[in-house]
Amino acid sequence: MMRAPRTFPPLLSVIAGLVASLLLVFLAAPIIELVGAGGGEGLRRLGSDAELRGALALTAFCATAATVIGVLCATPLAYLLARREFPGRAVLSAVLDLPLLIPHPVAGIALLLVLGRESALGGAALAAGIRIVGTPLGIIAAMLFVSAPLFVSGAREAFARVDPRFEGVARTLGDTPWRAFHRVTLPLAGRGLLAAAVVMWARAVSEFGAIVILTYNPKVVSVLSYDRFTSYGLREALPVAAALALLALVPLTVLRALRVDRREEM
Amino acid sequence: MIHLDRVSATKGRFRLAEVSFALEVGAYGVVIGPAGSGKTTLLEVLAGLVPVQGGRVLLDGVERRWMPPESRDIGLVYQQAYLFPHLSVAQNVAYGARDIATQQEVIERLGVTPLLARDVAGLSGGERQLVALARALARRPRLLLLDEPFSALDPRRRGLVRREVRDLHRAWGLTTLQVTHDFAEAGLLGDQAILLDAGQVLQSGPPAEVFRKPASPYVAEFLGAENVFAGTARPWTAAPDDAIGERQQAMAFETGTLTFYAVGDFAAGAGHAVIRAEEVTVARDQTYDSARNRFSGRVVEVATLGALTRVTVDVRDTPIVAAVSTQSARDLALAPGLAVVVSFKAMAVHLC
Fold first, then answer.
1. CATH 3.40.50.300 domain extents, chain B
2. Is A149 inside any structural domain?
3. A188 and B86 in contact by Cβ < 8 A?
4. Please, which residues 156-185 of chain A have a Cβ atom closer than 8 Å to chain B?
5. Given an 8 Å threshold on Cβ–Cβ distance, is A184 in contact with B84?
6. Is the pLDDT of residue B53 over 60?
7. Does B120 contact A at CB distance below 8 Å?
8. Which of B46, B91, B93, B95 should one mutate to test binding to chain A, selecting the residue with the greatest count of A CBs within 10 A?
9. Smallest Cα–Cα separation from A81: which of A163, A152, A168, A187?
């Protein structure tokens, strides 16, 4: 006689479910409350509040630019980390995780030290007529710094999930390493890479700490909501904050839709 | 010719250690070995997918150790097929195809046509192997590397595909190296058998020779030799002259209370005697034949496996196994307890 698969004891399942529900409510309630209270007004303000419209456009543009730069620069790195054993790989991985571990205002201060007019790099850029601090370039730099590690991590996982033997077979079928990469590895890792890029974009959109140090003006939405809160109070900040939450929810929805599509294909 | 000369390579924790063998152009080689012996790694070394750390890989007499896989003119089929899941079956077959005509010929020969419209995800294990084989052959490579390519095929299709691959191998002069667990397949397909264990070549040569003359008792047992005896060999001085050929010695091998006579290129001393069950005959009485080794005993076990029957005979507390046709076993009415005579020729005794 076949034995029924073992399951958790009922009491344990109830307790686990209760604890999980509490966490879920704690995580979701503020966002639901925020969007519920200010979402409608935020959308209405899009028609009348030019500053909010500008901040949203700047946020989306800078996040997109940071994501494009991140994807272009970090994809080879993620592939290298997923595929190759080399001395210092663990150190490199740890360095890539650093921006995720330090407080974001601290990241902003660190970036200011490297990109500010007193620094070698910032000074050289300024001499070439390129100002970084206090411009959208500063926003992009801050967004890139805090969100690129998320892309590297996601892309690395996406590449690691593709069995290297697929590439090996492609090589035996006449492909050069680059051709095998773009004909086989890239399509197979494609959804994972896209998901990693979406997460990076969402993280960039919601960044505040590093941006506020590097570029207070022009204002991205997170800085604008902070500015309205400190200048006019919660009532004025609420629609802006809700608009930012809605903007951040867009990629999440896209990501979920992609996953649903994938399940349906399978 | 493929010539591996003391090749060493590491993949993860596994290491191929000083592997050497040669395979003539157009030959069909089979690599036999237990799981984890390095068979797949060996193929990947030849394909250029696993870097060589020491030794030489000579293809047609030229060192190809540094040559990238795409320049080696090879086809590789893994046991798991590794079909590209984002492409259709037709696109998979066409992926590296030499030309449309070759692609079409392979598709028709292997019977892949009904699968072309199918999605890769919906194929069975056997169908996947078939498509992977077609994909590799459509390239018409000079060297075909097969890692248990027929293992997931049903017996009927396995026979058909095996025959088609063998035909293409002959027609195209395709040098082929195939990994297999199946000794029958090795004997059926191979011009040369390479026995691999723990990353080392234990023995290589024509399959019949490897099976009949294993280099060690371990090889003998791995290849399924039923009669392997430990003992001591000494010169058989009383051997008749007509029994000994050139460069051969006659030896008497003592194991327990039995003495086997052997003729071959053997040295005296402690070792093992190997006698394949197929070389042992069973009779009801002492009928005369030319066999030098003849013993009376009692049948202890009779096991019928289709057309072959394995008979275990106890000869003075030493079990000797004979493989006879099931028809012969019926004619002799072999059954446990029956007194019989087992015999085998001195040439059938291999000392190692």
1. 2-212
2. yes
3. yes
4. 163, 165-166, 168-177, 184
5. yes
6. yes
7. no
8. B95
9. A152
Which residues make beta-bridge pairs with A100? none
In chain B, what percentage of residues exceed pLDDT 90?
68
In this complex, is the C-beta atom of B54 within 8 Å of any C-beta atom belonging to chain A? no
Q: What is the C-alpha separation between B79 and B149, in angstroms, rounded? A: 5
pLDDT one-digit tens code per residue, B337-350: 999 999 999 999 99
pLDDT of residue A3: 57
Q: What is the count of structural domains for chain A?
A: 1
A196 lies in some domain: yes
Please answer whether residues A200 and A101 qualify as being in contact, where contact means their C-beta atoms are separated by less than 8 angstroms.
no
pLDDT tens string B207-223: 888 888 888 888 888 88
Task: Give the class (CATH, top level) of B276-345.
Answer: mainly beta
**Which tens digit of pLDDT belongs to each residue from B138-186?**
999 999 999 999 888 888 888 888 889 999 999 999 999 999 877 777 7
A84 in contact with chain B, both atoms CB, cutoff 8 A:
no
DSSP lists the bridge partners of residue B197 as: B200
Give the per-residue SS3 of chain A: CCCCCCCCCHHHHHHHHHHHHHHHHHHHHHHHHHHHHHHHHHHHHHHHCHHHHHHHHHHHHHHHHHHHHHHHHHHHHHHHHHHCCCCCHHHHHHHHHHHHHCCHHHHHHHHHHHHCCCCHHHHHHHHCCCCCCCCHHHHHHHHHHHHHHHHHHHHHHHHHCCCHHHHHHHHHCCCCHHHHHHHHHHHHHHHHHHHHHHHHHHHHHCCCHHHHHHCCCCCCHHHHHHHHHHHHCHHHHHHHHHHHHHHHHHHHHHHHHHHHHHHHHC
Q: How far does B86 lie from chain A, in Å, by closest CA? A: 7
Q: Do A168 and B121 touch (CB under 8 A)?
A: no
Output B237 or B120, whichever has higher pLDDT.
B120
A4 part of a folded domain: no
Inform me whether the C-beta atom of residue B258 falls under 8 Å from chain A C-beta atoms. no
pLDDT exceeds cutoff 50 at B102: yes
Query: Mean pLDDT score of chain B, rounded to an integer?
Result: 91
Residue of A nearest to B47 (CA): A172
Residues in B touching A169 (Cβ below 8 Å): 76, 78, 82, 84
Here the tokens at position B11 are: 């993949």
**Domain membership of residue A224 as a residue range:** 39-265
Residues of A in contact with B84 (CB under 8 A): 166, 169-170, 184, 188
**The domain spanning residue A193 has which CATH number?**
1.10.3720.10
Q: CB-based contact (8 Å) between B212 and chain A?
A: no
**CATH 2.40.50.100 placement within chain B:** 276-345
At residue A1, does pLDDT exceed 80? no
Do the Cβ atoms of A59 and A221 come closer than 8 Å?
yes
User: Does residue A215 belong to any structural domain of this protein?
Assistant: yes
CATH fold, domain B2-212, is: Rossmann fold (3.40.50)
